Amino acid sequence: MIIDCRFDRLKPGAGRQAWQRGHIPGAYYADQDNDLAAATQTGSGRHPLTDAQDFGALLGSWGVTP
Fold this sequence. Notes:
This protein is mainly alpha-helical and 66 residues long. Helices cover 27% and strands 6% of the residues. It has a two-stranded parallel sheet. The two termini are 13 Å apart.
């Protein structure tokens, strides 16, 4: 299982676009803002960790199991 997490903070969407242009066959794309981080709140920082259950569900949808 390959999960591509390319990200350019200055160019939102650039990582996904790079993945779409070419990636290892079967690789999934995990977006830093939408898949790997929770919504920001006061004091949480730019990319707080997403909820473990939500992240587990995303991985499960890609076929990742414990």
